[in-house]
Amino acid sequence: MLMGKKILLGMTGGIAAYKIPDLVRRLKERGAQIRVVMTNNATQFITPLTLQTVSGFPVHLDFNPETENQINHIELARWADLILIAPATANFIAKLAHGFADDLLSTICLATTAQIAVAPAMNQQMWKAEVTQNNLNLLKKRSFLIFEPADGSQACGETGKGRLLESLQIIELIEIFYTKNTILKGKTVLITAGATREDLDPVRFISNRSSGKMGYAIAQAAQQAGAKVILISGKTNLTPPQFVDFIEVYSAQEMFDAVMKELEELKINIFIGTAAVADYRPIRSENQKIKKNQDIMTIELERTPDILANVAKLSPRPFVVGFAAETQEVEKYALSKLDKKNLDLIAANQVGIPNQGFDSDNNVLQVFWRDGSIELPHAPKSEIAKQLIEIIAKRFLMTF
Q1: pTM for this entry
Q2: Catalytic choice (46, 138, 156, 260)
């Protein structure tokens, strides 16, 4: 998959530098061509000779008329298919965000047209700092890839998010970049996922068993197909997919408002409603915990906004895909929902069956449109998601 790919690895000064020789070795094993550029601070943690040995090529250091071609930064900037900064310190991220070019590596980054990926590594408090997050958001707006760090114990003795990803995790993300299908290139896809919650009181709420796994898998598959993806999610225990714009919401009303805001501000080509949105909410949510002082309690409920139906009513509108989780007569109810809500396509599955649907990593889908259907047999949700995105993309291109 990485055979012949030209990857320039830029190493900055952090304790996670000890992981980089292994990363270089594993990239070479997969056939990638590697060139290494080190900042002065990086050489304080590991020697250039080490990386020269594992990469098989001289390591490029800071500008030096005796050892470096005066326009070496331009040559390296043009050579690379991908520039990977690992570990990327908070300081170097700030340089990238604000266009500094005061050493060889930052100058290469400014002079290249190649994709730049940043793998941060720093103290957990530095990672959480507002200025660091602002700098990362600037890079995301410029289409930098951010390989977000892991959560765990750190060299400083603290625990939190900031650990450099392991070599195989970084390689997996690089492979995603190189293998991205372009069937949805240039398109924007808005996806809802997870379950919404409707409060009864400060400690209780109405919700459902949706884990969000199917929606998150679809978001990842759409991103890998070349789309810009916005994922609006209810509360889950999942980590948002890499390279996806993520918005967390709580209730059906919050999800409705977030969806409409994105549709108003952006040109959304495809809307995929995988979220299990509460159909009803309590008319009144109590400010204090409801006490157990009666044998029977009646709770009045009211309808929540129908997100799918409202999106489908828009003019102009995106290509609208719905989901139906049913316990019986799947085809009957799915086709009824397709027609009633004026959807372009609907994916339906039967829940309550072991090893598929809610909470499971696997699924089975029946996909319907006006004049056709297809069944996606039992498989991991990640694979089902890829197949579904291909179907959606083909139907979208035929319709719009």
Answers
A1: 0.67
A2: 156
